[in-house]
Write a structure and sequence with these properties.
This protein is of the alpha+beta class. Strands 1-2 form a two-stranded antiparallel sheet.
């Protein structure tokens, strides 16, 4: 299969459905832990845990734990930089 035919993550409509489902679970009093790289999901989260500072042997340490807004305003991790750009364009 060529790289152009491979799925590149959730479609935006799927993300909206996922976020609605997660909101219902939380509204019902459940604790929900999601491991996800999709920026819309991260921006929607109550809290984020950013591991790093890199991947593999260079990662694995908590480099940030707080709200998405705090990540955007106070952190300079790679994830913060990408999420900052995403939020600025939405």
């Amino acid at each position: 299969m060529s790289s152009t035919n491979r799925r590149r993550g959730l479609h935006l409509a799927d993300v909206d459905q996922l976020l609605a489902l997660l909101d219902r679970l939380v509204d019902d009093g459940n604790t929900v832990v999601v491991i996800e790289h999709h920026q819309a999901v991260m921006a929607h989260a109550d809290q984020l845990i950013d591991l790093g500072p890199g991947a593999g042997h260079d990662g694995g340490r908590i480099v940030f734990f707080s709200t998405p807004a705090d990540l955007i305003s106070t952190s300079d991790t790679l994830r913060a930089q990408h999420l900052r750009k995403y939020v600025a364009t939405t």
